[in-house]
Design brief:
Layout: H1 12-16, H2 41-46, E1 53-57, H3 64-73, H4 75-85, E2 90-96, H5 108-122, H6 125-130, H7 132-141, H8 150-160, E3 167-173, H9 182-192, E4 198-204, H10 208-214, E5 219-221, H11 227-239, H12 242-250, H13 252-266, H14 270-285, H15 290-299, H16 304-313, H17 320-332, E6 337-338, H18 339-348, H19 359-362, H20 370-387, E7 392-394, E8 405-408, H21 411-417, H22 420-430, H23 437-450, H24 460-472
Parallel strand pairs: 1-4, 1-5, 2-3, 3-4
Antiparallel strand pairs: 6-8, 7-8
Protein name: NACHT domain-containing protein
Keywords: Repeat
Organism: Clohesyomyces aquaticus
């Protein structure tokens, strides 16, 4: 029964989100100071005062997902929720919408499947009570002939939370990244919290649908509360640099002012800080003069999109064609690419020149040994780092480097790189080489198929690669 609700990537997104930097977000579990603009989160978790939704909102790039992951894993969350549960069974479930990932991260259907899976795996006795027909058919025949649809999932979710003997806590990140109607999403969540035994912590950008629904209840505007966290982050990163240590010895006032100015210019946006600190660290490594560091800080744009454009402009002239091809391959992919597939697409994906054999023909049907895969992937990872200025990233290794996927550093990067004027600029450079990303991805998928061994050909991995080949053909 539980297999009918699960899907392969159900919990992958949680692991991909950055962990909170040391000592950041501690304030969330401390009482707010007087005249603060945010509501006491600990009190909301513990109390039974009818306020059943807590909304975390912020500008793009301010660390909402990192904070939600921090809440999900913090021991204080569990302590306060158990005080609220007062001895009743407590079920916790989470979901992270992610518009930059595969389809399973984007829909209400995936959200409800994930919540129900986590409910039923914790309270299996509820299955027969709230899904009697499915449970009986699964018991007798091992499967159910009809797939779940949105209406059935929503109906089961609304019914299962009526179990007054159980307390339910749902943590749902990135409501604005759901591809379904946002008003319907909000209405569905509000129906869940109409029951006193349900609490939901949600996060989103401050869009009208969510402001209308949540701003009168308990909420937090994250970018207004992270100044201290950003100062700690910047100082810690710079303190690890020998160049910054030497700068402090030479001019400690300027070294302190550097941290202060980065914090102030960030306007609470952690993503902006990450890119700027990288640039400053590079200058410090090269022992650039104080005047150069000052000019760098003054010239870096304060808005994210302007900063992304500045990073694109910094790509060396002889690297631009390769860099733009990499951006276009990631954009054209229908789901996140592995490092190995991206390597095949970028290195073997172009049409053969006259008189030369096809890249596909050059690959015999033989399994690549682990060293060959590792070598290809290390080269591609290094190329992404040197060519793409941090705008594309590689996920933390799963089991092997070849299984790691490439994705946009942040949703704001994806939105920027998909703007028509950006792609027009990229196309003007790429056009000279007649590069076709879809043809390159098709070739890469076919080459990937030729490297599988016999055992892999019996699995879903092989057929997924076949589907990819047909998709790009």
């Amino acid at each position: 029964f539980l297999d009918s609700l699960s899907y392969d990537e159900m919990f992958v997104r949680h692991g991909q989100i950055s962990d909170a930097f040391h000592e950041t977000f501690k304030w969330l579990f401390e009482p707010p100071q007087e005249q603060t603009s945010w509501d006491n989160f600990t009190a909301w978790l513990r109390n039974n005062d009818g306020q059943r939704t807590y909304w975390i909102s912020a500008k793009p790039g301010s660390g909402k997902s990192t904070l939600m992951k921090y809440i999900a894993s913090h021991i204080e969350t569990d302590t306060e929720l158990r005080a609220w549960a007062a001895g009743s069974p407590l079920v916790r479930a989470s979901f992270y919408f992610w518009v930059g990932g595969s389809d399973v991260y984007k829909s209400r259907e995936s959200l409800l499947k994930a919540l129900l899976y986590q409910i039923f795996i914790n309270r299996p006795e509820l299955i027969a009570r709230y899904c009697p027909r499915r449970a009986e058919v699964h018991r007798l025949f091992g499967s159910f002939p009809i797939s779940w649809d949105l209406d059935e999932l929503d109906n089961v979710a609304q019914n299962v939370v009526k179990d007054k003997n159980t307390k339910f806590f749902f943590l749902i990140d990135g409501l604005d990244e759901c591809v379904n109607d946002h008003e319907e999403l909000v209405a569905s969540l509000q129906a869940l919290t109409s029951h006193q035994n349900v609490k939901i912590c949600v996060s989103s950008r401050p869009w009208p649908d969510f402001e209308d629904a949540y701003q009168k209840g308990p909420h937090l505007l994250l970018h207004e509360r992270t100044e201290g966290d950003i100062t700690s982050f910047v100082r810690s990163k710079l303190d690890r640099s020998r160049g910054y240590t030497e700068l402090k010895m030479r001019d400690s006032d300027f070294a302190d002012r550097l941290v202060e100015e980065i914090t102030q210019k960030s306007q609470g946006v952690f993503l902006w800080v990450e890119f700027v600190v990288r640039a400053i660290l590079s200058d410090l490594k090269n022992r650039k003069r104080i005047e150069v560091l000052e000019r760098r800080l003054q010239e870096l744009p304060e808005e994210l999109e302007e900063l992304f454009q500045a990073l694109i402009d910094m790509v060396e002239e002889d690297l631009k064609e390769d860099a733009y091809e990499l951006f276009e391959l990631v954009r054209a992919a229908h789901s996140p690419l592995t490092l190995l597939t991206l390597s095949f697409a970028h290195e073997e994906g172009k049409s053969p020149e006259d008189g030369k054999s096809s890249s596909i023909a050059r690959f015999e049907r033989a399994k690549l040994n682990p060293q060959e895969k590792e070598g290809r992937c290390k080269i591609m990872k290094g190329r992404l780092m040197s060519h793409c200025k941090g705008l594309l990233e590689v996920t933390t290794p799963v089991e092997a480097l070849a299984a790691c996927t490439v994705h946009y550093m942040h949703r704001t990067v994806r939105e920027f790189l998909k703007k028509p004027d950006i792609w027009k600029a990229f196309s003007n450079v790429i056009a000279k080489s007649s590069f076709d990303p879809y043809a390159a991805l098709c070739r890469a998928s076919i080459i990937h198929l030729k490297t599988f061994d016999i055992e892999i050909m019996k699995t879903n991995i092989f057929w997924a690669a076949v589907t990819d080949s047909l998709h790009y053909a």
